[in-house]
């Protein structure tokens, strides 16, 4: 009798464990499918024509809000090419989180009109940069090929740069321009997309006194 009870209990535990695993698997599949659908819908809306995905590469970015500790926090990202229409070269790039498959960023590089469009998906923060062929990094990155840039980051050729967004810094110290005594520094803002400073340096209008 004791043996039968033990067997029934073991079968019950096995049943419950299997059910939990199957439910988790279904949840993950549903989540992945939802995220992939988001990418698909976005690309259909942006290009309004047929497209196909190309090769992907995994790269890493340090979390900007991480503390300086022995174990620096990093995010694993997947960059995937997007071929539009009959193009033989990737024009778009989808950037997702490797662990969650969340759609994070999108970049379109128009090498005919020399225009780059960057989008931070969660906030729909969209930036458009024109005349990108005039930037010095246009050639060294194979005309802003994000796969090549990721390879340069992975190999250490590119390092110590801001991954995405605005970055401010102070310019040189010079005499006040209003005729008063003393000197000042101006604040300047740049914008980075996928480790590449692409927006140029622009004054923010902020100043501070300095010694000269």
Describe this structure in words.
The protein starts with a helix and ends with a strand. With 212 residues, the protein is of the alpha+beta class. The protein has helices spanning 2-47, 137-140, 146-155, and strands at residues 51-62, 74-84, 92-97, 103-110, 115-120, 125-130, 164-175, 183-193, 196-197, 202-210. Strands 1-2-3-4-5-6 form a 6-stranded antiparallel sheet, with helices on both faces. Strands 7, 8, 9 and 10 form a 4-stranded antiparallel sheet that branches. It is elongated. The model is unreliable at 11-34 and 66-71 (pLDDT under 50).
Structural class: alpha+beta
Rg over alpha carbons = 25 Å
Proportion of strand residues: 35-45%
Q: Please report the distance between the alpha carbons of the first and last residues.
A: 94 Å
Tally of separate helices: 3
Q: Tally of extended strands?
A: 10
- What form results from the Cα inertia axes? elongated
**Main β sheet profile:** 6 strands, antiparallel
Q: State the share of residues found in helices, binned by percent.
A: 25-40%
- Main-sheet strand order equals 1-2-3-4-5-6
Sequence stretches where pLDDT stays below 50 over 5 or more residues? 11-34, 66-71
Order of helices and strands: HEEEEEEHHEEEE
Mean pLDDT: 82
